[in-house]
Amino acid sequence: MAVPTKNIPAPDLVPVRRALLSVFDKTGLVDFAKALAASGVELVSTGGTAKTIAEAGLAVRDVSELTGFPEIMDGRVKTLHPSVHGALLGIRDDAEHAKAMRDHHIEPIDLVVSNLYPFEEVRRSGAGYASIVENIDIGGPAMIRASAKNHAYVAIVTDPADYASVINALEMNLGSLSLDFRKKLAAKAFARTATYDAAISGWFAEELQIEHPTWRAFGGRLDQVMRYGENPHQNAGFYLSGDKRPGVATAKQLQGKQLSYNNINDTDAAFELVGEFDPARSAAIAIIKHANPCGVAEGQTLKAAYTKALACDPVSAFGGIVAMNRILDAEAAEEIVKTFTEVIIAPDATEEAAAIVAAKKNLRLLVTGGLPDPRAAGTTVKSVAGGLLVQSRDNAVVDDLELKVVTKRAPTPAELADLKFAFRVAKHVKSNAIVYARDGATVGIGAGQMSRVDSSRIAARKALDAAGIAGLAAPLTKGSVVASDAFFPFADGLLSAIEAGATAVIQPGGSMRDDDVIAAADEHGIAMVFTGVRHFRH
Fold it and tell me: Rounded to an integer, what distance in angstroms lies between the CA atom of residue 109 and that of residue 14?
């Protein structure tokens, strides 16, 4: 049964006469407190916040004067008191509430300024269990939620970025804040505590290895509002979860116009793919279009890798995303800017390379400071009507898998190297995925088809087109290897790959017709390797 309401209308303008300030992040605090004091607002504060305000030469009352009780237990208990929460929750136009406030000498608080212990930052720092628990704020969220609930009379400020707008609103309304303004602050406050609690509950689930907690929450902070989403009629925003995994969300944009929704989605896909390639072993380039690779290659240098990757599908690469596993150098930059490119993302860039890219004013250049770890655990989330699909990240790496040769002929060392390369790429291609590779480069990619044999044929067709553009007598699929993200349900997909010129195959295995597929491979002298791991990607 719902709590009954008294239907007392909220006043529009509420004068701000007393403010309670209790913050961990003291950014802008002194200037804000000075502006409040200049507007005639009495300042009440706690602990370190009160000390900072007092040291700035401002008059400030300690909260213990309101409560008649000192801070105890290392500051764990300071605002959790009826004199504080009564001042925040009292409905001032309700006769009973007003009488209770008078009887108990509760002075109303009109404005609360509170941000929280840095739980998220401490968690990410690798601190120990006890330290993380100690940074779970209790009094702060309680004050924030109480103030936000009673926004009819109380304004709650949780973000230093809002200080200027609060002062401006007070000046516009001669020392008062409007109901509409208080509602917006309340909405932001509840969103902040929800995100904070989501981080805490997520940490506990991770710490206790609870894979599927009964209640699951995810939160993020708005980073940017976008012009539109996937299409112009859809609105969109980009929220940061706080995860420090190197990628588009943590990257520094050195130049270029704002990233779009599709740019961010594609850039994430590109950088996750190129993170599969160890920069100590070789340079690697991934070119992405609509979240699928259209060319991936390894090379001695980034330029060499880019040239090989571009050759796979130069038509689709136009307007694509280019990701690399090493520092962007001038030689590679000069080559990349010859083709219209939307985004370049790299661990870093030399000054010379950045200057070359800067000549293309709309081309975005992002640097991340590192590569994503393909083996790292993590969680991915996808929304469906009425729910969320949550799963662990696909962190299987082909170098860690026990590969099983199932045909009479084993792959040669060169074929095996290309098979591993192709399977690395196939992990990042939409299902059904087929990837042809040769000499450390993709030479044909088929993605997202309803039939695996169709993916195989499309990849072969793209290789044929690329050969025509390059003036080659035959497509590079002749003498290539092929990777499939899942098993071949019938021999027809394999036969299509053989027809395109593949000499070796890597696939998960596990079909009811594995024996038929192996027999077809043996009949054509093809080497086949099973991984035992599938890489569906939807």
Answer: 11
Cα separations (Å) of 349 from 139, 254, 263?
45, 9, 20
d(CA 210, CA 203): 10
- The closest alpha carbon to 206, from 135, 129, 117, 131, belongs to 129
Span 31-75, pLDDT tens digits: 999 999 999 999 999 888 999 999 999 999 988 777 766 776 676
Average pLDDT score, the chain: 92
Question: Is the N-terminal amide bond of 432 cis, ω within 30° of 0?
Answer: yes
The residues carrying an active-site annotation are 149, 290
Give the DSSP letter of residue 77. B
* CA separation for the pair 366, 352 (Å, rounded): 15
CA atoms within a 13 Å half-sphere pointing along the CA-CB vector of 515 = 1
Q: Which residues make beta-bridge pairs with 179? A: none
How far is residue 538's CA from residue 534's CA, in Å, rounded to a whole number? 13
Would you call 20 helix, strand, or coil by DSSP?
Answer: strand
pLDDT tens, position by position, 392-402: 999 999 999 99
Alpha helices in 321-412 (DSSP H): 330-336, 351-358
Asked whether the CA dihedral 446, 451, 457, 458 is positive or negative, the reply is: negative
E strand segments, 368-447: 379-384, 387-392, 404-405, 434-437, 442-446
Rounded to whole angstroms, how far apart are CA atoms 326 and 358?
19
Q: Are 34 and 176 in contact (CB under 8 A)?
A: no
The upper half-sphere exposure of residue 21, i.e. CA atoms within 13 Å in the direction of its Cβ, equals: 32
Span 4-33, pLDDT tens digits: 677 788 888 999 999 999 999 999 999 999
452-470 and 491-500 are packed helices; what angle lies between their axes, rounded to 10 degrees? 10
The helix or strand, by DSSP H or E, that contains position 402, with its residue range, turns out to be none
Q: What type of residue sits at position 496? A: S
d(CA 278, CA 275) in angstroms, rounded, equals 7
Sheet harboring 364-367: ordered strands across? Answer: 252-255, 364-367, 341-346, 320-324, 283-289, 292-299
Backbone dihedral region for residue 175 (phi beyond 0: left; psi -120 to 50: alpha; all else: beta): left
Report CA 132 to chain centroid distance, whole Å: 22
Q: If phi over 0 gives left and psi between -120 and 50 gives alpha, with beta otherwise, what is residue 181?
A: alpha
DSSP string covering 256-325: SSPPPHHHHHHHHHHHHHHTTS-TTT-EEEEEEETTEEEEEEEESSHHHHHHHHHHH-TTTTTTEEEEES
Dig out the tokens for 240 from the structure. Answer: 């940061």
Confidence at residue 186, expressed as pLDDT on a 0 to 100 scale:
96
Residue 1: the pLDDT is: 59
Are 511 and 385 within 8 A, CB to CB?
no
